What we know:
Layout: H1 8-24, H2 45-58, E1 66-70, H3 76-83, E2 87-91, H4 95-105, E3 111-112, E4 125-131, H5 139-149, E5 150-159, H6 178-185, H7 199-203, H8 205-231, H9 233-242, H10 244-247
Parallel strand pairs: 1-2, 1-4, 2-3, 4-5
Helix pairs in contact: 8-9
Amino acid sequence: MARKNMDSREVGLVIGLIFARYFLHTDDLHYGFWPDDLPVTPDNLQLAQEHHSDLILSSIPDGVKSILDVGCGGGALARRLLDRGYEVDGVSPSGPLTAHAKQRVGKECTIFESKFEEVKTAKNYDLILFSESYQYMKLERSFEQIQKLLNPNGYLLICDFFRKPKPERGPIRGGHRWEAFQEELGKYPFDNQLDQDITKETARNYDLVNELLTEVGVPVWDLIFAYGEANYPKLTKALRRIYRKKID
């Protein structure tokens, strides 16, 4: 078999899974959902991720039996869906993540190791779910595929971030423009059942990121450059000059 190139985002997700499993004892890859009464600490991240999954589970309409979990990551959410009695299949373009997901779900579901737009199956589903994975989809091609794989009167559930006009840039990059997504969505016969903004409850993850950078990242970074300036002053000076903007 030809060896496929590995996307940098795939590498980041696999590293995140390894980090989360070892240090945080979780294999969820999505953001946490932090209610007002839940302190934002590393110890509570797993609980916040469970709240995130609970929100998705509570949003699944009655009568849904079969679900396609697109971008199923390490299989944590698929496992919870299976435990709730749903028939579940997954989509994961990442070999390492697919292998881990298969360990979580066993033979209870099929995981398509491909991009969503390239999934080939005769199955159709009552609900297609994107949990922080729709940002990687192509708008037009994804909706064409959704139409092929969704049962008549089926549901589309997307929990992800989108870009809205802002006076200044936020810490998150990427995601589809909200207006472009709404325009594409309007071409298809979907009736909106739920539109919920959970920015406040998920943005609190960046408090953890800030703490990690402040308490760990910056001291390590400073130590590396102190070592470089002491032992390789010319090289370190050149690196600082070349990558000044990125370093800042």
